[in-house]
Amino acid sequence: MRASRFFISTLKEAPSDAEIISHKLMMRAGMIKRLGSGIYTYMPMGLRVIRKVENIVREEMNRAGAVELLMPVVQPAELWQETGRWDKMGPELMRVKDRHGRDYAIQPTSEEVITDVVRTEIKSYRQLPINFYHIQTKFRDERRPRFGLMRGREFTMKDAYSFDRDVAGMQASYKAMYDAYVRIFDRFGLQFRAVAADNGAIGGSGSHEFHVIADTGEDALVYCPESDYAANIEAAEALAPAGERAAAAQPLAKTPTPGKAKCEHVAELLSLPLSQTVKSIVLAVEKEDADKEIWLLLLRGDHELNEIKASKVAGLANYRFASEGEILEWFGTKPGYLGPIGTKKPVRIVADRTVAMMADFVCGANEEDFHYTGVNWGRDLPEPVVADLRNVVAGDASPDGKGKLAIQRGIEVGHVFQLGTRYSEDMKATYLDETGKPQLIQMGCYGIGVTRILGAAIEQNFDDRGIIWPASIAPFEVVLCPMGYDRSEAVKAETERLYESLLAAGVDVIVDDRGERPGVMFADWELIGVPHRVVIGDRGLKDGKLEYQGRRDAEATPVPVAEMLGFVKARLAS
Amino acid sequence: MRASRFFISTLKEAPSDAEIISHKLMMRAGMIKRLGSGIYTYMPMGLRVIRKVENIVREEMNRAGAVELLMPVVQPAELWQETGRWDKMGPELMRVKDRHGRDYAIQPTSEEVITDVVRTEIKSYRQLPINFYHIQTKFRDERRPRFGLMRGREFTMKDAYSFDRDVAGMQASYKAMYDAYVRIFDRFGLQFRAVAADNGAIGGSGSHEFHVIADTGEDALVYCPESDYAANIEAAEALAPAGERAAAAQPLAKTPTPGKAKCEHVAELLSLPLSQTVKSIVLAVEKEDADKEIWLLLLRGDHELNEIKASKVAGLANYRFASEGEILEWFGTKPGYLGPIGTKKPVRIVADRTVAMMADFVCGANEEDFHYTGVNWGRDLPEPVVADLRNVVAGDASPDGKGKLAIQRGIEVGHVFQLGTRYSEDMKATYLDETGKPQLIQMGCYGIGVTRILGAAIEQNFDDRGIIWPASIAPFEVVLCPMGYDRSEAVKAETERLYESLLAAGVDVIVDDRGERPGVMFADWELIGVPHRVVIGDRGLKDGKLEYQGRRDAEATPVPVAEMLGFVKARLAS
């Protein structure tokens, strides 16, 4: 490519609505252009990256035996009604009426349509397994779109759907997709981690997320450096502390803690470690045929509630946080001084595993400005219902028993699900088995956020000069920067010679023939993030040298003219 | 590709809603699957064709210097309001509200968005010319979607937009796109014709359509075999007949023509050629500040009205056909007996160029069951206003004076427009010229209906066994049909050897390893339309032969095993 025939448009400053580095750099590098809230035009420079991401995804999906098709953006509401998602999805699902008043969804994903294809196309067990995928424009009407391509409304997603005869088959298809994803993220050249995840609203029996590691990631990833264990913190089990609960050593005492409504302040006042305190979280559950229930969850003062774990406690599937009014009514005091002893009205108590192992702990006394100290299970209050309620913390024992957990931040870019019969049941997608009996098809689904990869790659790879693309998804692998392309015949001739030889070697190279000053040229390409640069100048040519500089290199390396092609190819291969 | 890893799904019968051959064959060959009215999933076999079409389009657009980007499907209404198209487009424009109640269009085309990109990105004359294109999903809410991909609602279109400093630049960009389109349709391997066209609702100063030639085409294409002249019949000029008008030879006579309300019947009754009769077409024009006008257009009995030409007569831009009530009120009689002589109320008369040259003609007498014969201009009624009102017919003189016109049918698959400042004016898209003065940007736009190409290619290339794809856009170039792949080691080994050698030669080959019976296998691939087939069987192998058959060949050609690779490559190259 020649820069003069391409479209390059860089900015000194990012627009003020760009909050995170990837958004800022993509705007400054002219990769995307905002059209509306969460809606972007992919400019020529950005589209090249998207296409490279798509091609890697496509190659590995094909290698894994998946078959590409293309499902429509505009999808009839009837199918979404069959699975109940027309109602369940809420305002995130963009809905549109045609000229005849018929309802359609603008697809956020395609489980319904692919299941409709399969239920008519697949008749016999002989046609299974099959895995269909497409790479298509999606729309989710996010409440608060932001972060550029990271949380846009219109985006490009690869979604694949596997169909199998039985659970074992589904699990094999799932494994094949998992392995394909590992190859895909390897080829992107990004540091990533696959973690066990919660299935969430999509349903089914198991899932993994693929995260690009980045300090700015929204998700906390839990892993064990000594084993394969890895999970999203939402799904990571916190084991009960090892050993026995210590015996009670202190008497129960109501202690004045005036104005100390937080565990941290109570511990400070009483000169106790925070890990000796217990905090109270109050939930409410509405009941159709009875009064609502109020629940009290107890966590150690230095631990955090895991809301997904809470929802898995029997009876808490549809909980909400209690209002201040409800707290006053059930506890007789305001938040900050709540505890399990002597509530005003009966509440259902659940203690986190760690709390259940504590002795002589501190908790609120259900009276303003007072806490109990020396609280002990079995003595001061009955043994509690126990559950895993908290987020793990670094240093916790790994659930596989093989070491201690560490935590890092990640950006979710892929998700694989074992769906089972979640969709085939609603939509009556069956096949005839060897005996001619209809059986429900077992499904899996597998997504990669194609456009989100760009944001995640940048969050992981940038410096104060701009983006640093891995070569496999860079808009160009190599840029040639001739110093005085229009002034020096020698520079122009050597530039053209190297350009042609790189093209002939299959290298994706751009030559900057715009005639810009070196400073502008270098700043542009460092901002855009092309990983390899060759400078062709009269001064170097006098000594028979060109200058190579990798995007992460501190300085340029002089390379003899005749060796540059081999040098660049070696760098690309490494 | 191996058929066992692909998805092949053929049907014996087309669904009943498929009216035309391309729709029937695409459904039967499993290329598309209906999701809703005018909305199709592109199945794996169809998607392969679409991708090949897209790639040819992309390569030639890039070669012509256009730069690819990708504009969103969901576009803010504000931009469409700036050009007035939000109101003008009517129900064909699919509209959607987001969760905040803001209006969006689902793009049918992208003039507004690209002009918005350009008005902020292009500041100086130095950045011009530029040509941006994308290949993207479009939606048009057709009143009556039909014919499969030929008139779908959701479809894929390539749309390019050129931006220039002045009219000469725009015309050069237009020419470059025209030439690129010729290369594109050449590479498709389709018979096509570029014709001058009317700009229609999109506005601007000139346009050409690209048509795939097919007897089933909706458009009539006019061309001169002796010259370059070619136009859509909508835009083809009908010259005035050469020579002078004959002198009046007959007296004006009111002649009874009971029950003969059509020119054909009147001519038959009076034993006159149809070309001696004149038919009356009555139009109405509503006026804001005055009574409506009634117009009478006169055409020779054997000619057809060209509605676009009528709309270009001064005063007729917004005409409609008159109602029977209006006709009675203005002419005093019912349709079938109307004419220019003695109307009840005054009407404005326009005669087609041919009619203006007629003498002693026949027309209605404005009295039921009566016509006038021997009518002559200047004697029986004043010389008329004259205009070109009719469709040309085969044999008419070519407007370039170089021969006689011929007519063939075509399917419109591409359209190039000189837009001028139609959009840049409304959207204030300007650049600064050398003197620092803002100037309106001159635009062109260029569309290709990617998915429609499939339908058009089939309408041009099919037989009673199925589709016959040109090799460049076939889902596969070559199919290998082993007879007894699973039973004969020799067949399997030779099949695999040939498969690998074709792959290594860069041929897009599929091997049918499904183990189907030969009859099923041959019928499937003839229906799907793969252009080259090689049969590998034990009987042939005994003589060291394989069988080659082109999709249009009447019989198979035996080819020695060792020569088959070269034979197929030669066929692909020819």
UniProtKB/TrEMBL annotation, chains A, B:
**Localization in the cell:** Cytoplasm
Which catalytic reaction applies to this protein?
tRNA(Pro) + L-proline + ATP = L-prolyl-tRNA(Pro) + AMP + diphosphate
Q: Which GO terms describe its molecular function?
A: proline-tRNA ligase activity
List, for all copies, the residue spans of the domain called Aminoacyl-transfer RNA synthetases class-II family profile.
Answer: 33-470
**Domain observations:** Consists of three domains: the N-terminal catalytic domain, the editing domain and the C-terminal anticodon-binding domain.
User: Do you know which InterPro entries this protein is assigned to?
Assistant: aa-tRNA-synt_IIb, aa-tRNA-synth_II, aa-tRNA-synth_II/BPL/LPL, Anticodon-bd, Anticodon-bd_dom_sf, Pro-tRNA-ligase_IIa, Pro-tRNA-synth_IIa_bac-type, Pro-tRNA-Synthase_IIa_type1
Species per Swiss-Prot/TrEMBL record: Noviherbaspirillum album
Q: Which UniProt keywords apply?
A: Aminoacyl-tRNA synthetase, ATP-binding, Cytoplasm, Ligase, Nucleotide-binding, Protein biosynthesis
**Chief location:** cytoplasm
Q: What does this protein do?
A: Catalyzes the attachment of proline to tRNA(Pro) in a two-step reaction: proline is first activated by ATP to form Pro-AMP and then transferred to the acceptor end of tRNA(Pro). As ProRS can inadvertently accommodate and process non-cognate amino acids such as alanine and cysteine, to avoid such errors it has two additional distinct editing activities against alanine. One activity is designated as 'pretransfer' editing and involves the tRNA(Pro)-independent hydrolysis of activated Ala-AMP.
HAMAP family recorded = Pro_tRNA_synth_type1
Q: Which Gene3D superfamilies match?
A: Anticodon-binding domain, Bira Bifunctional Protein, Domain 2, YbaK/aminoacyl-tRNA synthetase-associated domain
**What CDD domains does this protein's entry cite?**
ProRS-INS (cd04334), ProRS_anticodon_short (cd00861), ProRS_core_prok (cd00779)
The name on file for this protein is Proline--tRNA ligase
